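Table S2 (text version). Query chain:
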Amino acid sequence: MDAAARLSSKGQVTVPKVVREALGVKEGDQVVFRVEGNRAVLARTPDFLALRGSVRVPAAKRNVAWDEVIRRTRRARAVEPQ
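Corresponding structure-token output:
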């Protein structure tokens, strides 16, 4: 699907209704622009909170600060034989 829109003097674009409907976005939703060569791709951002519980977290990494999880993981990988 192709849909055209005009860039305003403030650099703003109104996303055409057919595109909003196709992506399932509504007022207040966040979108992301990705530049690929001379094109920009508009995508709906995933609702990361909806993914909660879909990945099993090992008991050793529960209720641990993220920095500490990264530190432990790097330390463990450094001693593993390649």
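Notes on Table S2: Residues 15 and 42 are 9 Å apart (CA to CA). The chain has a mean pLDDT of 86.
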